[in-house]
Design brief:
With 95 residues, the chain is an alpha+beta fold. It has one domain: RelE-like (YaeB-like fold), CATH 3.30.2310. It is built from three helices and five strands. The chain has a five-stranded mixed sheet with strand order 1-5-4-3-2. A hairpin with a 2-residue loop joins strand 4 and strand 5. The protein is globular and about 35 Å long. The model has no long low-confidence stretch (mean pLDDT 92).
Length: 95
């Protein structure tokens, strides 16, 4: 049976998206559509997203780069054949 992917966005992330530049919001929605259509495993292989696991207090979470400055923080949960991708934050990464 094929797995289904569903992306949900926390209220905190929704609030952050309202304050971000339009091109970042557009890149975010492109990533969401791609995950829902193709699955998270296929998207992790796209080099431009730099999908990586986080460490320390954020262990169990992953990040994806929308551009050089902005990234999405998310968690993945499986419920049978449904994979839930919970977007926790969309923020400007401090280097």
């Amino acid at each position: 049976m094929e797995r289904s992917y569903n992306v949900w966005i926390t209220k905190f992330a929704e609030k952050q998206l309202k304050k971000l530049p339009k091109h970042i919001v557009a890149a975010f929605h492109t990533w969401v559509r791609s995950v829902e259509l193709d699955g998270i495993d296929k998207n992790r292989k796209i080099a431009g997203y730099h999908d990586e696991p986080l460490k320390g207090d954020r262990k169990g979470q992953r990040s994806v780069r929308l551009n050089r400055a902005y990234r999405v923080i998310y968690e993945e949960t499986e419920n049978g054949n449904i994979v839930l991708i919970g977007v926790l934050e969309v923020n400007k990464h401090e280097y």
